[in-house]
Fold this sequence. Notes:
12% strand; globular; 9 helices
Amino acid sequence: MKAEELKNYGKPYSETMAENSRSLKKLFNKEGAKIIRRHLGILNSLRLLLLVRREKKRLASVDLTPVRQKGLTSDFFVQQTLENTAVFSALKEITGKEKAVAIGHDIMDKIAWPMNELLYPSVEQYRQMDKPFQAYRDYMMALMVAEKNAGLHEYEVIEDSDKAIAINITYCAFSEIPRLCGIVEACELGCYGDEVFFPSYQEPLGIRFVRTKTLARGDDCCDYRFERIQ
C-alpha cells in the first residue's frame, strides 16, 4: 500500500468535512447535545437554541473578506465555522466564557476521536506500510499543501527528517473566522480536540505529538511537532 492510497490523501479539511457532513452532524447531535443538556438543564438548553439562531443571523453579516483573500472558497466550511462560532457565543452568553470552554472540552473528550476517525486514515492502514513514519510524513505534507491551496492554512516547515516533522501554522482559517467575529476563543475547542485525538492516534505508530502554542490561544503560531519515538 502506498501513502497516496491512504484515506483522504491530499484533500483539505474543507473537502473531507463536507463529504462527511451528515455523519459529523449526527455525531454532534447525539453526543454533544446530550452533554450540553446535562450542563444547562432543559430550560437553558431551549434558551440556547434561540440564542444560537440569533447569533447565526448576527454573524452572517461579519465581513470575511480577509479569509476570502487568502483563497478560501468553500462556502460549506465558512458556514460550518460560523455555526460553530454561533453555538459557542450563545453558550458563552448563558454560562460565561470559562464554563463555555469547559463544556466544549467535555464535548471534545467524547467526540474528538470518532470525529477525526472520519477524516484521517486508520491506524491499521498505516500499519500496512513498510515505513509508517515515512507514510505519515508524506500524508501530512500532502495535507499541508492541500490546506494552503484551499486557503485554510499557511505554514512553515521547521524540520523534516527521519526523526521528526515540525510545522508552524502561521495562519489558520479555523481561528481567523471566529477572530473576525470577535470570538476567537470559539476555536479553542478545535485546538483541544487535537490534544485529545492526536496522542492516542499516533502513539501506536511510534509517533509522539507535541504542541506548545496555538493561534487561537493568542500565540504567534501553532507549533505542530510529530516526533518519531526511538
